[in-house]
């Protein structure tokens, strides 16, 4: 009952910026933490950033100082501002939420992903 839809991906040159958005929708759900993961070809999915409902954040070392995660609880949305992008940031970026539906236990919910390509 929780759907996550990402937007904002695209192709940019090194040093450029992108802002990813993710909106959660459904009925009778509660969202705890939200975050962004990414997966490059031939690699496993990795955590990029996460944010709790009250705004505490964690970042992968590789993106600290360049990316910023934020959320709007009223809109059930999470955002990822990506600056100073590098070719190694190229990946499919997935929105993630820890959510409980209609009194059920909390579990993981995933978006379909949005492609980010950084190249010259």
Please characterize this protein's 3D structure:
With 120 residues, the protein is mainly β. Helix content is 0%, strand content 58%. It contains no helices and eleven strands. Strands 2, 4, 5, 6, 9, 10 and 11 form a seven-stranded mixed sheet that branches. Strands 1-3-8-7 form a four-stranded antiparallel sheet, with no helix packed on it. Strand 7 and strand 8 (77-82) form a beta hairpin. The mean pLDDT is 96.
Order of helices and strands: EEEEEEEEEEE
**Count of DSSP E strands?**
11
CA radius of gyration: 14 Å
Shape: elongated
- CA-CA gap between termini: 41 Å
TL;DR of this structure?
With 120 residues, the chain is mainly β. It is 0% helix and 58% strand.
